[in-house]
Amino acid sequence: MMFDLPDSQTLYAALCARDASYEGRAYVGVSSTGIFCRLSCPARNPKFENCQFFASPGACIEAGFRACKRCKPLKAAAGDDPMVQPLIDALEARPTHRWREDDLVQLGYDPSTVRRAFKRHFGMTFLEMARQRRLREGFTALSAGEPVIAAQIDAGFDSPSAFRAAFARLVGMAPGAFRKDALLLADWIDTPLGAMIAISCQHQLHLLEFADRKALPREMQRLQKAQPGGIGFGRPAPTQQIAAELADYFAGTQARFDTPLALHGTDFERQVWRALLQIPAGETRSYSQIAQELGRPTATRAVARANGSNQIAVVIPCHRVLAADGSLTGYGGGLWRKQRLIEIETSYTERLTA
């Protein structure tokens, strides 16, 4: 059963203590290894800045993490269900295989029974789990500089078009919308808080979002309307720069971003986003404070809408805006990420004043 996770510091303390009371209730993904574990895992404790916490194994998988072979979180989550572990073993043995229901039948399983069991234990079906693994394998190859055809082969897709179709479903685009001569190029950036999609032209970063954000398809549509010229795959200079700056940011070495940005929005939205860029790391503002700063004291709700329309997460720090009473509210990437980003930036100011 899902439950509300406590803050990251509490969960990290539980991880270091190998606290068994969180068994089946919280999991940790480690960005430096790409692996997720139970909090009771006997492996050496990772650094705090490399930890991302989840309430279910399915959420870990959706964020791109692989199950730890030492503490076996998938096996623990499945309990004594006799069909789950053999299928997990089969997936681990063939991570790029294009699994279908016929494969399950050949292994002696009823597809509908498998579907219900995996949904119950992991929050996703076996076929969804397999597809997530294949897509991740492909993006790993793309991020390493491999062409689409090599990434497609590494991910077990039958053709480049099938690989593009899988990515298209993730971002809500038609597969045929991707072009070889595109002006905007999409790539995958791993962070301690989950994978991000970056889209850049040769000169500016146009979009940076967490891959699991539900509004990502809508943001992609908005971007294509604002910036004609098509979208393809690749890592131009702005994406390389933001990837390096994000690595420094999450490593705690600097909170400054110099990547040139393209701001696609109304005049008012761009005013709000520029105001967000002026909030120092480690500080927060309320929506009403930003409205006051803009000379629009009655525009609190409009500020909140503009804040939610930001398409360049982390860099344009909409996570630094709180409700009037100081509570977390309104973050498309998930309130747990908003809390974690604020914690990271608070650690910057604590080090400076220590």
UniProtKB/TrEMBL annotation:
Domain of life: Bacteria
Catalysed reactions, semicolon-separated: a 4-O-methyl-thymidine in DNA + L-cysteinyl-[protein] = a thymidine in DNA + S-methyl-L-cysteinyl-[protein]; a 6-O-methyl-2'-deoxyguanosine in DNA + L-cysteinyl-[protein] = S-methyl-L-cysteinyl-[protein] + a 2'-deoxyguanosine in DNA
Keyword rRNA-binding recorded: no
Protein name per Swiss-Prot or TrEMBL: Trifunctional transcriptional activator/DNA repair protein Ada/methylated-DNA--[protein]-cysteine S-methyltransferase
UniProt keywords, alphabetically: Activator, DNA damage, DNA repair, Methyltransferase, Transcription, Transcription regulation, Transferase
Transmembrane helix among keywords: no
Transmembrane stretches, start-end: none
SUPFAM superfamilies xref list: Ada DNA repair protein, N-terminal domain (N-Ada 10) (SSF57884), Homeodomain-like (SSF46689), Methylated DNA-protein cysteine methyltransferase domain (SSF53155), Methylated DNA-protein cysteine methyltransferase, C-terminal domain (SSF46767)
Residue ranges constituting the HTH araC/xylS-type domain according to the UniProt record: 106-181
Cofactor list: Zn(2+)
PROSITE patterns xrefs: HTH_ARAC_FAMILY_2, MGMT
